[in-house]
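User: Run a structure prediction on this.
Assistant: Running it now.
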Amino acid sequence: MKYRAATIKDIAQALRLSTSTVSRALRDSHEISAATKQLVLEHAARLNYHPNPIALSLKEKKSRSIGVIVSEIANSFFSQTINGIESVANEKGYNGNYFAKS
């Protein structure tokens, strides 16, 4: 079975709210009541909802991605270096997309 990440549409359908209301609640907009925000946040947590990093990058016009090119991923030096880069990048809000070519 294939994993499918929860979306704003999933939350909206479950709570019978519009997707724009859910989006505003997740962004802590002043236009949404505290009760609705709480309901949306609780349901999002139950579904393990995380914003789509690609969608966010389109909205913010920043990818928050780092490209690293190495000659040999099996080499322990490169593996340790990439692990270090990944740790620091994650702390700074960058996402982890991995592509390896052998």
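Residues 16 and 50 are 20 Å apart (CA to CA).
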